[in-house]
Fold this sequence. Notes:
CATH superfamily of the domain at 46-111: Phosphoglycerate mutase-like
Helix content: 25-40%
CATH architecture of the domain at 46-111: 3-Layer(aba) Sandwich
Mean pLDDT: 96
Shape: globular
Amino acid sequence: xxxxxxxxxxxxxxxxxxxxxxxxxLTKRGIKQLHQLIDFLNSQAFxxxxxxxxxxxxxxxxxxxxxxxxxxxxxxxxxxxxIYSADDxxxxxxxTQLPDHLHSVVIVGHNPTITDVANRFLQPxxxxxPTSSVTGISFETERWxxxxxxxxxxxxxxxxxV
Length: 162
């Protein structure tokens, strides 16, 4: 069984405050959203073995706060620059290349890609995943290469209330 959590980064400051979009940091509201997400994941007893994060500052900050709140080691965070600009096909390819010994993986990324990947499995599809939201999916396979074609179940689709 493989467990995948697709998380959109927490709310970040506007573009105007930074030279590039890549540099945007989390807002106070984003950090509050993230703590709600952590409480939710802890209530589900979810413990990731790997967090694959976009290289954008807001995604890295989301990942760092997430591992701290879940009581995980920081070394489970892997920064994957391709996630920043990837489309859903590129992200799906990345997922199929994960090592099979990993069973619980989190992707921290951006819209529209996170929503597009989630919508490959959600019925009905959703319009847009808000910041700090999570889609949890379990796949009946032992190989990440096979997950796109495996039976699956949606474990949760959760949004923050802040």
